[in-house]
Amino acid sequence: MTRNRRARKVWLRMRAGSGLEVVLPYRVSAADVPAILDGHRQWILARFADLAARNEAPGQDPLPRLIRLPFCDRTYHVCRDMGARTELRAGEGVLQLRLPPGAEMGGISLLQRWLVDQGKRWLVPVFRDLAGHHDVEVSKVQIRNQITCWGSCSPSSCISLNAKLLFLPSDVVHHVILHELCHVQHRNHGSKFKARLREFNPMSDQHEDFLRKAWDMVPGWTKMNRKERAL
Question: Which of 40, 51, 172, 195 could anchor a disulfide with 57, C-beta 3.0 to 4.6 Å?
Fold first, then answer.
């Protein structure tokens, strides 16, 4: 349970590996939490069941056995061995993890770094093709394992793309890239931005609707960090 000065109401979030997170405004007493949780019991149970079904509930092994990347149509089997140090070797369709006992989070970190490398391999060429096709110049493109956004555009026209886009369909990923390319010229989401985005992608409204639910398509191990796992 945490408090947030900017929170105006109680927030409940179910996070992979760490379970339920409760965020309280300062005006809400901790004594009210049991009643709040009881009022959301069905939602909590359903979300916990979802985590358990994906092997992402607290106490479960956080390491995936299979990784599917729809964007590039690749599937990888994750094999794990015991070893003196943490290392990852990538082969054709196989990721070989070697971990000391209790080093699951070290394995998660290696997989997250591997995912960023895959983003550089698959996302960057598509980005450059779309930028060239629409005659948009950017200063730099980088791939990150971002937490809360699919992409971003800095004031200097440096565009960041989330490696988690690899878990989405290609048409939706193209939409995210076009969205960020539009920000090179239009920094806000005003009418000119929306008009340009629809010019680039007539299906932009449908893709935006898809993205609102797309985080559920991203496996929990991509979102975990050492602090969360220690809770």
Answer: 51
Crossing angle for the helix pair 191-200 and 170-185, nearest 10 degrees? 140
Region of residue 19 (left: phi > 0; alpha: psi -120 to 50; beta: else): left
Number of CB atoms found within 10 A of residue 220's CB:
21
147 φ/ψ sector (left φ>0, alpha ψ -120 to 50, else beta): alpha
Rounded Cα distance between 201 and 12, Å, is: 35
- Residue 149 one-letter amino acid: C
Reported pTM: 0.78
Give, in order, the Cα–Cα distances in Å from 97 to each of 13, 33, 67, 78, 216. Answer: 30, 41, 13, 7, 25
CA dist., res. 35 & res. 150, Å (int): 35
Q: Name the superfamily (CATH) of residues 66-217.
A: Metalloproteases ("zincins"), catalytic domain (3.30.2010.10)
Q: Over its length of 231 residues, how does the chain's per-residue pLDDT go in tens digits?
A: 778 767 778 878 777 666 788 888 887 788 888 998 999 899 889 888 887 777 666 666 678 999 999 999 999 999 999 888 899 999 999 999 999 988 888 999 999 999 999 999 999 999 999 999 999 999 999 999 998 899 999 999 999 999 999 999 999 999 999 999 999 999 999 999 999 999 999 999 999 999 998 998 899 899 887 544 332
The Cα–Cα gap between 210 and 217 comes to 11
Alpha helices, DSSP H only, in the chain?
Answer: 33-39, 41-53, 104-133, 170-185, 191-200, 204-213, 226-230
